[in-house]
Specification:
Number of domains: 4
Distance between the termini: 51 Å
Number of helices: 3
Largest sheet: 4 strands, antiparallel
CATH topology of the largest domain: Neuraminidase
Helix content: under 10%
Number of strands: 54
């Protein structure tokens, strides 16, 4: 813990492990209303355009400057970045946010929705909240109810307000303090007995879009373009409202489908907007080309529309005489059919050695063909990269409120691309494969794991305290109460491991087997377990120590397996 006193450059350092105090000095800063935050083993102080950064491990100071000299700023860290927000420039409040990436040593800029100073700032997961503070109306100081929310994952800003009671803001005060607990933030302080509780789980984020492919049709030909699959929304996926602009004569939007018969030729740019119930929206545009019936009399197959993740597949054609078209695609899609909307089967979608797909279309005796290499379009490595779970290897009590945690994340879609792993606000990025060790406090029961592979980023909310609190132990035997796991033969010498699971009658059971680097070896789910469930776990080519995790909605156990050949 580091305490910094007003009008002084003295820093008192308290080591909680040794119960000892030491003293150092800020090399450049002094005064009051300093911003202060921590990032890994570094403590950062900000004021007047200067950053003094103290390395707790080495005891050394480094310095940085930010572009605009301000006092009474809010300083907070998220991931690898420090955010310096608001403050006073002379007598004027500022809305400037300067973002310093400590890993790249790069700066970027953003802006608050309202200029203010003496704010409080805190981080929950990937969300940073800047709340309250003072703003200026002329020469008068005015209390602010604004809460600006920065989402690091989407690089987007949202605005909220402290709550109202009986028509008056109950917490117009400055400065205020904020503390997080789980996914909630509590605001309190400075002369008020109110505590405002903000639940970040209910933060509304804008919809997203995967885009819409350009389309070509014949004049007089009936068309139906389904737009629903092009948009998604984290909070209200089934409640998006779609609107369009630029539709040519003869076409209209019915629910989520553009339908009708185009009446004029030419190419039109159509914009589709998806809005959620909270008023946030996203839009995308595509071109629709309407050709005259005599412009292209030969039927041709175009590149199909394909979703690598869901397997949704649509035949696209151009030309022809307007009569019904039949479609065909092998392997793994469909025999002859008049329905252009199909799905690629799971084996063809995921197999590394999947064969090219042969597409055919025919109309009144005319047959055309197109060969498409599905693996070139959707490499297996492009399957969604994700953190799918965590193997908790040990959880040691240090004090009544502190634990030493050892764990290994489980991943899907790992490739040979550069990889790093971090824990938001707890551990800086590392390329080490794990296991990882953290010292955590019980008032922070859920931590956010973050992994980056190439340009892909995955995150996972890990309720470590719930796992630590369950009666689990690692080994080849059984637990004494509740969920019990028994490995029938450990070490394992064959291609499968036989496991008995008991004590979870009528509960859903999730089974995850991974190697020591967190790579998934086998997953299985039992929707409703019997008194004793015997399962066979495929071990594939894995060798050495494997971690078996069996979990129910209320319990979690880990067992080590030794696979030898």
């Amino acid at each position: 813990m580091i305490e910094q006193f007003a009008e002084s450059n003295v820093v008192d350092i308290y080591d909680v492990a040794t119960n000892q105090w030491s003293v150092t000095q800020l090399p450049r800063l002094s005064g009051r209303d300093l911003g202060v935050t921590s990032l890994g083993d570094k403590i950062i102080f900000a004021n007047g355009g200067l950053l003094d950064i103290y390395d707790v491990t080495s005891g050394l100071w480094t310095t940085q400057s930010y572009s605009t000299s301000r006092v009474s700023v809010a300083l907070v860290t998220i991931g690898q970045s420090a955010l310096i927000a608001g403050g006073l420039i002379g007598n004027d409040a500022s809305n400037l946010v300067e973002i310093y990436n400590t890993a790249t040593n790069q700066w970027s800029l953003a802006h608050l929705s309202q200029p203010r100073y003496l704010m409080t700032a805190t981080t929950v997961g990937q969300m940073t909240l800047f709340a309250g503070g003072l703003t200026k109306e002329g020469s008068n100081e005015v209390l602010s109810s604004t809460v600006d929310i920065y989402n690091q994952d989407t690089n987007q800003w949202l605005t909220s307000r402290l709550p109202q009671v009986d028509g008056a803001f109950q917490d117009l005060r400055a400065p205020i303090s904020a503390v997080r607990t789980g996914k909630k933030v509590l605001f309190a302080g400075d002369g008020s007995n109110h505590v405002d509780i903000y639940n970040t789980e209910f933060i509304n984020t804008p919809p997203t879009t995967t885009g819409i492919h350009n389309q070509t049709v014949l004049i007089g030909q009936s068309i139906n373009i389904d737009l629903a699959s092009a948009f998604s929304d984290a909070q209200t996926p089934s409640s998006l409202s779609l609107s369009t602009s630029g539709l040519p004569l003869g076409l209209g939007l019915i629910n989520t489908t553009i339908t009708g018969v185009p009446a004029t030729t030419g190419t039109t740019s159509i914009t589709v907007t998806a809005a959620d119930p909270g008023g946030l929206s996203v839009n995308t545009s595509f071109s629709l080309t309407v050709q005259a019936s005599g412009q292209n009399t030969s039927l041709s197959l175009l590149v199909p529309t394909y979703d690598c993740q869901t397997g949704a597949f649509r035949f696209n054609t151009i030309g022809g005489d307007g009569s019904p078209i039949e479609y065909y695609a092998v392997p793994g899609i469909t025999g002859w059919t008049t329905n252009p909307n199909q799905f690629v089967d799971a084996e063809t979608r995921t197999a590394a050695d999947a064969q090219p797909i042969t597409l055919k279309a025919r109309q009144n005796g005319q047959e055309v063909m197109l060969v498409r290499d599905i693996r070139a379009v959707c490499p297996v490595s492009s399957a969604p990269f994700a953190i799918t779970g965590v193997n908790t290897m040990s959880c040691q009590a240090i004090t009544a409120t502190e634990r030493r945690l050892t764990f290994t994340p489980q991943y899907r879609g790992l490739t040979s691309e550069p990889f790093s792993f971090s824990v938001v606000n707890e551990m800086l990025p590392t390329s080490a494969a794990g296991p990882y060790n953290l010292r955590l406090y019980t008032d922070n029961p859920i931590i956010t794991l973050k992994a980056q592979q190439g340009n892909l980023v995955a995150s996972y909310s890990y309720n470590w305290l719930a796992v630590c609190s369950s009666p689990a132990r690692s080994g080849s035997g059984e637990v004494t109460t509740g969920l019990a796991i028994k490995v029938l033969g450990n070490p394992v010498t064959g291609q499968t491991a036989e496991v008995e699971i008991s004590g979870v009658t009528d509960q859903s059971v999730q089974i995850n087997l991974a190697d020591m680097q967190g790579k998934s070896v086998h997953t299985q789910r039992i929707e409703q377990a019997g008194a004793v469930e015997r399962v066979s776990l495929s071990l594939g080519a894995s060798n050495g120590v494997l971690l078996l995790q069996v979990s129910t909605p209320t319990q979690c156990q880990q067992v080590k397996l030794l696979r030898t050949n």
